[in-house]
Automatic annotation (TrEMBL):
Pathway where this protein functions: Purine metabolism; IMP biosynthesis via de novo pathway; N(2)-formyl-N(1)-(5-phospho-D-ribosyl)glycinamide from N(1)-(5-phospho-D-ribosyl)glycinamide (10-formyl THF route): step 1/1
Entry's Gene Ontology BP terms: 'de novo' IMP biosynthetic process
EC number(s) reported in the record: 2.1.2.2
Keyword field: Purine biosynthesis, Transferase
Class of this enzyme: transferase
GO cellular component terms attached to this protein's record: cytoplasm
Key word rRNA processing present: no
Name used for this protein in its record: Phosphoribosylglycinamide formyltransferase
CDD domains membership: FMT_core_GART
Alphabetical list of Pfam families matching this protein: Formyl_trans_N (PF00551)
Amino acid sequence: MKNKKIRLALLIGRGGRLAAVYERAKNNPLVDLVLVVSHKKESPGIDWAKERGLEAIYFRLNDWQAAGQDRKSYNLELAKILKQRKINLVVMAGWDLIMSNEFLKEFPGAVMNIHPSLCPAFPGLDSEKQALDYGVKYTGATLHFVPDDGVDTGPIILQRVVPIEPNETVETLQEKIHQEENEILCQGIKLFAEGKLKIEGRKVIIKNGFLFF
C-alpha cells in the first residue's frame, strides 16, 4: 500500500537543524514540512523559514506566562495549533522545553527529539560540556521518540558516535555533533514517513533491519 505523505512540524530553538530538514523534505515526496515553531526570544530559523515560504511562528512560554497563563495551558495550546494544521509528526530540534504528557498524548508515537549525546548519557542541557567535563572519549548524537515527559529518556531510533579529541572544546565538539544530528534526524524522518519504525517497549525496530537513504 502506498504511504501517505506526512505533515511535519519542526519545533526549534535557533534553527540549526532546519536547513538540513528542509532540503531533505523538499526532495522527499512523502514529507511535507508544514510548520516551524520556536520558543526562543529570537530565532534566525524563523526568518529563514519565512523566506522560503514556510509558515513559521514564535510561541514563547515566557510570553504565555506573562499573560497569566500556566504551563499546562501552554502545552495544550501548542497541541491545538499543530492539530489545526493536521500535523502527524512532531520533531523537536533545539527545543529546550519539556513537553507535558497532555501534549504528548495528542501525538502518540509521533514525537521525536534530537539530543547531542549518546543517550542515556548526559541528558538535558549543555550535554557537550557534560561530556568534556566527565572526560569520556566518545559522545555523539541520539534521535529518540518522546513518549512521556522524561528528559531524553525515550526509545532510541538512531545514534551516531563522535570521538572527542585531546584538545576538544565545546564549540568544536558541537560542530561535529551537529553534522551527525543532521544526518540521523533526516534519516529518522524518512524512516517514519515510510512506515519503517515500530516501538516495542524500550526498543525501536527498523523494518528490514537496515537503512535506505
